[in-house]
Write a structure and sequence with these properties.
The chain is mainly beta. It contains no helices and eleven strands.
């Protein structure tokens, strides 16, 4: 059964960095666009970043542009999210998923959601 597992979250001070990983198992998603989303308590799940199958294209939410970088290693069936200059408002559970629908920026177009990894940024 195909599944995604996120890791790398934790507690960090404002201005710090974390690198999240999303490892796929059960099947290869190397031909799919992949995305990262996040959800803070009491808020809707929101788009963070996405990357196409080759890594030649990536897109970001305005709130993370210039601070976060998405990448992938298809040989390892893994997608990464490098997060720099973290802010308290980045605190959320971060999820990765596979885009199986049309809209890259809409979480309803994604499937195979992982359990998420908690990121907490202290001020």
């Amino acid at each position: 059964q195909a599944q995604l597992v996120e890791s790398g979250g934790g507690l960090v001070q404002a201005g710090g960095s974390l690198r999240l990983s999303c490892a796929a198992s059960g099947r290869s998603f190397s031909s799919y666009r992949m995305g990262w989303f996040r959800q803070a308590p009491g808020k809707e799940r929101e788009f963070v970043a996405a990357i196409n199958w080759s890594g030649g294209w990536s897109g970001y939410a305005d709130s993370v542009k210039g601070r976060f970088t998405i990448s992938r290693d298809n040989a390892k069936n893994t997608v990464y999210l490098q997060m720099n200059s973290l802010r308290p408002e980045d605190t959320a559970v971060y999820y990765c998923a596979v885009r199986t629908g049309r809209d890259t920026y809409d979480y309803t177009a994604y499937d195979y959601w992982g359990e998420g990894t908690q990121v907490t940024v202290s001020s």
